[in-house]
Protein 1
Amino acid sequence: MARPELLDPVLGDLASRIRAALLAAGLPEAEADLERPRQPEHGDWATTAPLRLAKPAKRPPREIAQALIDHLDLPDAVESVEIAGPGFVNFRLAHRYHEALVHRVVAAGDDYGRRNREQGERETVNVEFVSANPTGPLHVGAGRWAATGDAIAALLEADGHEVVREYYVNDAGEQVRRFGESVVLTARGLPLGDDHYRGSYIPEVAEQLRAEHGDGLFEDIPDTEIQLGGGAEHAADGELVEDAAVTADPRVDPRIGARVGVLAVEAMRQRIQGQMHQLGVDFDVWFSERHLHDTGAIEAVIGQLKADGRTYEADGATYLRTEQFGDDKDRVIVRSDGRPTYFASDLAYMRDKWERVTADGRSGRLYYLLGADHHGYVGRLLAAAECLGLPRDRVEVRIGQLVNLLRGGEPVRMSKRTGEMIALDEVVDEVGPDVTRYHFLRQGLDTMVDFDLDVVAQQSMENPVYYVQYAHARINSLIRTADERGFDHGSLEDADLTRLTHPAELQLLTAMAQLPIVVDDAADLRATQRLARYAEELAGTFHRFYTECRVLVEGDDQLGQARYWLAVAAKQVLVNALALLRVTAPERM
């Protein structure tokens, strides 16, 4: 959880004074935690230190609380302090704190809410997400993981870490050959077999490759055979089909199928990249599984594990001892016929990522975001990390639930255009990237999302994304109106912010102060919904302020100037929150 005293200079000063007061009172050393009281009328911040010190100090909590207050040198930014309940110490901030907040927000600009960490506190985090097979376009569920992974990466960056967004391209193995066969047979006008890929995108890929390479691509046997490696495939439940009983189609020479498969996978990867960009997601690295085969990385990691005593032989196969590290069973990494399994590729890939994030002595972390169909992979990957000698606490594997696509409350399973499963880009075309992202991000990873195309597209205050964006548009409208009327807002330095005393103004200031804490909390918990819900709360406080407080006050320029600069600061905080969600802040709506 976030520690507010580390993120706010005023709270940091208060925490230091609390620690000094406890020591001056002869009490044991304790953390001067600060948290929000459950009831706003109890103050702005509270510490529970007296409750935690009661047992070691052998004194009643309220007595400790009084001793703390007696020895506490209150900073100017704190107006009052009082004891509440069994021993809480509540603090109420002075108006100068809110005044300083407006100045701090405007001065920081786009950096407000972001944290600067010392080099020793900063991690390099590899965030791998989506990584869907490049044998077809992405569907709606992948869009959720794209939006979530991208926003988690943005939160980690805002929290002071270096982040790499990575997509693992499964471009090796049996699936590539079958994909190539599907394209070749379609290009030749021949029927597809039961094991081939189908869909309107197959003819599209065939025509694209024909235009780029000519008809000879589908007929001429290449001089050099392409090694696809691998051999395993993902089944629908996320488990692996290691020795799929699928034979090559005799109508397609395997060398042609492999060559076309490689080109078709790259064409589909480019389409996926376009789908991601349309949603506002851009990866730093597209990592090829074939690279692991071509460079000998898989054989190298298997050799390392054997040398480390992490493997054993049984029935002609090589097993990795993952069960001792929490997996439900030991895993085959080399089949009895000598071919490495898909899990062996995962091991090589994990080691490659770890070496990259820890290069030059950096503190690294690996984060995997997987869909619900990979639930069985959590223990497997964590056990793999320990087998490789990686710190288990530096490898995170998160599973999220799926998306129910609805229209008017009824399930939508097929595209009207293609008669197939709806592709992600069709949804984004219909409702827009902002709507798509926001509705995915405001739900926790463990919650299944009902995405109703009719509901999410509504332009009403009941629609959360509209509600938040409209607050920003309202502020821009206010600023334009001020300019059109020739309102003299002056400079922030000249504004008398002590005039901001209305409850709606104070609520807005309190909400604005929360962004750094919310960002830190959301980053620590990998919880995008915390930031989305905060944006809604902030928008709500602005809407109330806008309704209850006339900004351009006639006959009271000082109050008008103060409210104008409050609105400017609120606009900045709202922009920053939306930017971390990768949602735009429109000037007009």
Protein 2
Amino acid sequence: MLAQEIRIRGEPTADPQKCRFVLEAEVLSRSPVSFDKESDTSKAPLAEKLLALPYIAGVSISGSAVTLTGDNVESWPAIGKEIGGVIREQIKSGEPAVEEEVMDIGDADLFTQVNLLIKNDVNPSIAAHGGVITLHSVNDGKAFVTMGGGCQGCTASSITLKQGVESYIVAKVDGVNEIVDMTDHSEGENPYYTQPIPQAGQTGGGCGCSSGASQSSGGGCCSN
């Protein structure tokens, strides 16, 4: 499939400063990775290009999805086409979005410490509510996790993560100062969003970035 033919749709998240761009093709076949402006992106060309955009503060890549954190973004539809162009250009180049040399777990020592706390202390506590937390990597003092089971999509998940899990782990592990949630809460048992959010006046594949794909009226956080 040619890069310009790949359809990309934008999906809303619980945070208006985040937009999830979903491709027809897989971007990353292994564990999710995340980057911000301070990360070393020399071996992650897609993240490097996206973070070069002045309005993007963070990039998370998982499977066929690229989740972007904005820097005071007022309208995702207004920038969706440019973002889609960057993603398609990366696919067209033939380079991997993230090179194999990029460690999945980040800081191995901190990963081990945090993972033990999650396995032995955190997960047994939230298991009673059907929840589970999975650690993916620890980089630059940030532990990147996803929430599953009853925690995925739960409106109280941010409280659980920040006031409970983050406070506990930060107090226990020197070198970790933040827990970053990479969960797609729209796919949970109690999703924040079950239908796309309509925004009138724009057509596209759901994110304002579907040039090169068939045009249709869409939904989500990034178009009508």
